[in-house]
Amino acid sequence: MSSALDNLSTWEAALDDLEIRLDVAARSMAVESPGGEAGSLAPWSGSASEGGEVTTPVGADWSAPKGLGAFPAELATRVQDLLHNQQKLINELEQARILTLKHLTAVRSVPPERDARASVYLDVAG
C-alpha cells in the first residue's frame, strides 16, 4: 500500500511542476508593458511550495522525472486538463507568432531613412 501512495505522491509532484510551468508561461503571455503592448515576464526563478519556498527552477529546461512508476488512474482527469491547457497555450503561442511575423513584415516594408543630401536618380525610361 505504501508503494501506491509513494507512486501517487511522485506523480502529483510531477504534475504540480508541469502545471506551475504552464501557469508561468501563460502569465508571461498575458503581461502588458507600460505602452499597452504584450510583453514578457523575466524568467521566474522557481515554483513555490505550500510553505512558500522555491522548489523548482522554472526557467531551467524540463526533463522527465525518473522512477514515476505506473500512472495512477485517479489522476486521469487532472492529466487531461493539463493536456488541454497545454494545447490551448500552444495555439495561443502560434497565433502570437503569426501576428509577430505580420508586424515584422510591415516594419521591414518601411524604407530606411535616407540621407537628404544624397543624390536620388530616377530611371523614367525603364
Automatic annotation (TrEMBL):
Region of interest: Disordered: 32-61
Entry protein name: Flagellar protein FlgN
Q: Which organism is it from?
A: Cryobacterium serini
Give the source lineage, highest ranks first: Bacteria, Bacillati, Actinomycetota, Actinomycetes, Micrococcales
